[in-house]
Design a protein that fits this description.
This protein is α+β, with helices and mostly antiparallel strands. The chain is built from 2 helices and 4 strands; from the N terminus they run ββαββα. Strand 3 and strand 4 form a beta hairpin. The longest helix is centred in the middle third of the chain and has 12 residues. The protein binds zinc ion. The site of zinc ion has 6 residues, from loops.
């Protein structure tokens, strides 16, 4: 089964795009840390286990990220 992100385009059509899947939480965490270290990020990205595909996705949890958290993510960021 696929788990898709659903959003509406400017014409009001529903568009689905597949979510990024990670087989391990470690992989998902690396990407989440990378996302959280971006200076223009407003909302925190978290990893979660999907109830549909049983893999890991990353997504916003609705909480705003603060400078300290962004800093911490930046230090842990393995892409640098
Ligand atoms: Zn899924």
């Amino acid at each position: 089964m696929e788990c898709d992100k659903i959003f509406e385009n400017e014409k009001g059509e529903l568009i689905t795009t597949p979510k990024r899947k990670f087989s391990t939480i470690d992989e998902a965490t690396i990407v989440a840390e990378y996302e959280n270290s971006k200076f223009d990020r407003t909302y925190k990205v978290v990893t979660y286990k999907c109830k549909i595909c049983y893999k890991y996705h990353i997504g916003r949890d609705g909480n705003k990220i603060n400078d300290k958290e962004r800093d911490n993510s930046s230090k842990k960021n393995k892409f640098k």
